[in-house]
């Protein structure tokens, strides 16, 4: 776990909750690039559970003090692509509410990841939920892995490779959370544009184009079924 606490033990010039939160997520991802469970098995439920445990531990083992409602791990089977972790924006119910400046920084950081061509401007798409489009835990974890996955596909000149990007989000109680409507739209758009890209929401459904599904199916042995909806 990352041994940084949200208290006053840090020098004032580093005591910026926004940077601590973001650095903590990235540092955790760097520290656990391809985690396994105690049996040596890749198990995203275990890995994400451990991330949540580490975060709750940093809040004095008090779940009620969690600033975040959702946590996420995004991973692939490719050995060269490390796992990435994320969390949602700070919940409004917490005692120490984020300042306007912190909220703005958080929004800009998430926008820069999810909409890299907008230079921090407002996304042109309306939110399909009551919350802003950038708020989800997936918005931290997914872009890093998608970038690597799209590069992986671009490196394959024959255009016949498939890569599956697996996303799992859970609450502080470790209940799986399916993609919200904004994340579903985002995943559907991406797989339509990217031959070979499959996005698997472990709590719900697989996003893939018909052409990608045909490529994937021709690679498989045995009887597999898919919930293609893109
Ligand atoms: Zn979402």
List keywords for this structure.
single chain, 230 residues, alpha+beta, 6 helices, binds zinc ion
Question: What's this model, at a glance?
Answer:
With 230 residues, the protein is of the alpha+beta class. The chain has six helices and six strands, in the order ααββααββαββα. Bound molecules: zinc ion (ZN).
Describe this structure in words.
The chain has helices spanning about 15-30, 45-60, 100-115, 140-155, 180-195, 210-220, and strands at about 70-75, 85, 165-170, 175, 195-200, 205. With about 230 residues, it is of the alpha+beta class. Strands 1, 2, 3, 4, 5 and 6 form a six-stranded mixed beta sheet that branches. Helix 3 packs parallel to helix 4. The radius of gyration is 18 Å and the shape is globular. The model is unreliable at about 1-10 and about 225-230 (pLDDT under 50). The protein binds zinc ion. Zinc ion binds near residues 138, 180 and 182.
Q: What is the topology?
A:
Blueprint: H1 17-31, H2 44-58, E1 70-76, E2 84-87, H3 100-114, H4 138-154, E3 163-171, E4 176-177, H5 181-193, E5 197-201, E6 206-207, H6 210-219
Parallel strand pairs: 3-5
Antiparallel strand pairs: 1-2, 1-3, 3-4, 5-6
This protein binds zinc ion.
Residues 136, 138, 179-180, 182-183 line the site of zinc ion (ZN).
Strand-residue proportion: 5-15%
Query: Which ligands appear in the coordinates?
Result: zinc ion
- How far apart lie the N and C ends? 38 Å
Radius of gyration: 18 Å
Question: What is the percent of helical residues?
Answer: 25-40%
Low-confidence segments, ≥5 residues, pLDDT <50?
1-8, 225-230
Output mean pLDDT.
84
Number of helices: 6
Strand tally is 6
Q: In this structure, how is the largest beta sheet organized?
A: 6 strands, mixed
